Amino acid sequence: DFVMTQSPDSLAVSLGERAAINCKSSQSILYSFNNKNHLAWYQQKPGQPPKLLIYWASTRESGVPDRFSGSGSGTDFTLTISTLQAEDVAVYYCQQYYSTPYTFGQGTKLEIK
Amino acid sequence: QVQLRQSGPGLVKPSQTLSLTCAISGDSVSRNSVAWIWIRQSPSRGLEWLGRTYYTSKWYNDYAESVKSRIVINPDTSKNQFSLQLNSVTPEDTAIYYCARASPALGIWGQGTMVTVSS
């Protein structure tokens, strides 16, 4: 199975500041057939299912604010929130959909400093 | 607007079968290019992908090795839904269970069902 490892496990950032979460895959998830990285980012708030933010590593889902961006390729990826808002407090997960089982990272808890 | 609505019991006895259903509105379980997924979440295992069913000229299923001997995911085209059966459950199967649509990322999720395995 592909192992997805996120860092850090938790993060405290001041309102209006930048937050960055990293995700590393145990194998490349860049698919040569379509030249796309099969990686998604999700946001989960208490009592809710995860919400898709980013897919293909850098494509924002419809309706997601543009302060959220994704980058990286191959095995190393980053989710960046450019200016942290109070409503961004949540747990964030990366997920690979290159090979079944489509594994998730362990999650990064984002809080306000 | 695509919605997934889960149903099923929240309490299952050890050694029995966990059964959940995910009803689809606004899409078709038979549509090509999407897959219908079951995932669970627990403090000990995190988010765990359990398996999927999808239609591409015929029906296919993939299951996680961790549950492969105990799991069945079935589509029901007459009711436009899909189901999860997990046999021989133990307390370790206690979790929140989610259904989701993969296209291919998981853009649509059910509301979640907390399932407790206890006598």
List keywords for this structure.
heterodimer, A: 113 residues, mainly beta, six-stranded mixed sheet, B: 119 residues, seven-stranded mixed sheet, four-stranded antiparallel sheet, 11 strands, 58% strand, globular
Task: Write a structural description.
The complex is a heterodimer of chains A (113) and B (119). Chain A is an all-beta fold and 113 residues long. Chain A is 0% helix and 50% strand. Chain A has a 6-stranded mixed β-sheet, with no helix packed on it. In chain A, strand 6 (39-44) and strand 7 form a beta hairpin. The N and C termini of chain A lie far apart (36 Å). Chain B is mainly beta and 119 residues long. Helix content of chain B is 0%, strand content 58%. Chain B contains no helices and 11 strands. In chain B, strands 2, 4, 5, 6, 9, 10 and 11 form a 7-stranded mixed β-sheet that branches. In chain B, a hairpin with a 3-residue loop joins strand 9 (95-102) and strand 10. Chain B is globular. The A-B interface holds A 1, 38, 40, 42, 49-52, 55-56, 61, 93, 95, 97, 100-104, 106-107 and B 37, 46-49, 52, 62, 64-65, 98, 100, 102, 104-107, 109-112.
